[in-house]
Every structure is written in C-alpha cells, then in structure tokens.
Specification:
Jelly Rolls, 48% strand, 356 residues, mainly beta, Immunoglobulin-like, 2 domains
Length: 356
Amino acid sequence: MKKLLLSLLLVSGAAASAQVLQTENFNGLTLGDVGTDITGTTPGQDGWLTFSTNGAAPTTSTDAGNANFQVVANGYEGQGLQLNGPNGNKGSRFLWKDGFADLWAGRTEGNEITEVEFDFYTGAATASTGQAGIRLYGTDETVTPAVARVLNGFVFNSGTKILQGVAYLNNAGTFGTYLITLATGGLTLTEDTWYRLGLAYDTTTGECIWKVSDYTDNLAYTGLPEANWAGPFSPDEMDFVYAVPNTNTTSASVIFDNVQVEATPAEALLGNAHFAEAVNFSVYPNPANSVVNVSAPAEVSIKQIVMTDLNGRTVKTVAVEGVNSTEVSISDLASGMYMLKVVSDKGTAVQKIIKN
C-alpha cells in the first residue's frame, strides 16, 4: 500500500509478446473477507494484503474493518472483489500484493509499457462522495527521501458516477498528482452497470493512456501531450483504492473483476474487449493432473496455446492451427498455477489453471 505525500481474463490479440505479470478473477478465493489484518502486515487470501483506516481523529468514520474487502458471488464472471468505502469524512482502503517490483524486473526485454485492465461495477445510486479505483504506483528516487508516485490510475466518484484518470504529471512546470477528465463534460457512468477499464504507462517516456468500454463501444480513449508527462518511473505496486474527501457522510461499494497487469512492447488496451462473450471456450479439467482440454464453438479456429507461469515466463507453446478443440499435455510441468492463453481467429483469451 502506498501512502502518497501530496482470475476469465482478456488480452489484446495485437500484443503477441505481451507478458502477464499479475492477474486475478477471484474465483479461486473463498466468499467473505479477503483478509484478517487491516494493518497491511499479514497477507490474507492468495497473498492479498489489506489496509483500512477511519482516518486520524477527529473523524466521523467508524467502519474500518476486514468486512471492507469482500469476495462476492456477483462478479462480472463468477466471483468478484467488493470494496466498501468509509462511512464518514476520513479514511481509506487499500488492497495489494507485495512483489510487483520483482515481477517487473523479470519482464522480457522490450516490454516497457505497463497495462492494467479490469471489469468494474459502478454500484447503486448513493449520497457518498467516496472515490474508488485502481492505481499503479512507482517510486521517485530523484528526491530525498524517495516518495511514491501515482504512475496512472482511475478515480470513480460513487455519488456523481464520474470517472476520471489520475497520475503524477507536469502541469506547466508544477509537478503533482492530477485528476484527468476523460471525456468532454466529464465521463459519467451508469449506476449498477459493468464496464471494462484499461490504463497504460510507458516506463521509457512517462506517457499515460486511459481507455473505457461498455463492452460494445469505446467510451473514452485518452492520452496527454508530451509536455505533461512526468518521470518516467518503474512500477512497483498495483492497488485497489477507496478513499473519501471531508464531504463524505455515508459508505458506498463498488466491485472489481478480471484484473490483469501486463508488460507489453506497445499499447493495446481493451483490444478485444468482448471476445469472452463472443466465444464461449472451455478449459477442463481444472485443476488438472496431466492433460488439459481446450474447446471452442465450431466456427472458431484455434491457432495456438501458450502457457506461462505467474512470473510471465513461457513454459509451453502448442501450435494447433485449424481446429476448434485440442488437448494439451501438462505432465511435464511442476505443480502450481499457470496462465493458459488461447489464440484464435476470433481473438485471444486467457484462463488461469492449476496443475496438481
């Protein structure tokens, strides 16, 4: 968790050499509390760390606790993560995993762009002014002491339903963390509705890009002039965040699902956002002992199966041109969790599998 000083997953078919760094669809977690420690010290389910606070006294917030981070059954596809915001005028929630800096350091040479994509549920109408989202952090070592910077992220106001970008930027020589308008007049999302969101950060230039889709149309595809870019910095953490301004008086909730972080050679956000709905492919059994079956409808031609470990290293590649079902032997792989990518003529999708 960065204290600022100021699990079906989709990938783009265009980013053939993209490398999955971190992914979560929450289907492998147990319903209920993600963790048992809101100080961010002891990991909860699947290594997720949780930090929750009511803010420094005096504060009207009273609801910081493990229940702020819930695995729920009503995700976009299966289970999801529900984040519950503070009920008063102070407080925050952070959920993250340690070790991202090591994953980034181990990326394939040339994959210098970090992309984060996820499904996001806006929640019901509410009087809350809480702000939820995902943020990618890095460390600025050009100052002493070094400080955390928001490399890129989203801020969603639960009350107004306005979605904005957020990043550490250069505003005519004044560096700071700024909110970015994603559409003329503001990008207002619909209550109780799912969207697919994506952000990209170029670690060689500092360029930030935001993209938003309703699974049918792109609602926003926004970048900034080079004069506004800051850094660049290397990413070292991705956080789910919920915070409130001093105007807040009530709690609100949002849901996240199908989160994927990649290192890519070129930006390709939401390149195939509705492949999962267009192609109902199956991967089974899961968990598996020695063989995994992959199948798709008759009109789909599977071209390739690529398996990677959780560090993004390719452990198996199988060419299967011109079929809609195939069998993949995994008997030579060590027990553990892998990402199985299916490349087809209709697009590319990734499924998390477990080798017994």
